[in-house]
Amino acid sequence: MYEQKTRETDVDVIEFIKSVDNPQKRGDSYRLLEIFEQTSGFKAKMWGTGIIGFGSYHYVYNTGYEGDAPLVGFSPHKAKISLYFATGDMERQELLNDFGKHTSGKACVYINKIDDINVEVLKKLINRSIHFLQDLYPPQR
What we know:
The structure is a single chain. The chain is α+β, with helices and mostly antiparallel strands. It has one domain (13-136): Alpha-Beta Complex (Aspartate Aminotransferase, domain 1), CATH 3.90.1150.200. 34% of the residues lie in helices and 22% in strands. The protein has four helices and eight strands. The strands form two sheets. A six-stranded antiparallel β-sheet has the order 1-2-5-6-8-7. The chain has a two-stranded antiparallel sheet with strand order 3-4. Helix 2 (23-40) crosses helix 4 (119-136). The two termini are 27 Å apart.
């Protein structure tokens, strides 16, 4: 049986950010922490060994596979900062058109630094992702 590797942990988010070697990425991580917490309304939690996530949802696929994941998040990797948003949201691309310098994959949007992006669009992406996922997977009571 498959065991989910990326789970919420008790690792201290600030201690994790303090351990980021690159001073630019460390500073951007503190800024992203503030933006994501204020915009999402969720306190930051570590997921796995390197993802700072905000909120969570429980998903169940048609195959029966299920798990938990953060609603949104980011990770300060050595090469780039990964921003995690919902997959499958067709409105995401419209927002990314005005986001600034980035590349994107299926689930991640990659940036070099915050100064390359439009922070107001980032806030819209955070809110859009949260609403999309909560509509798709309503919070369980």
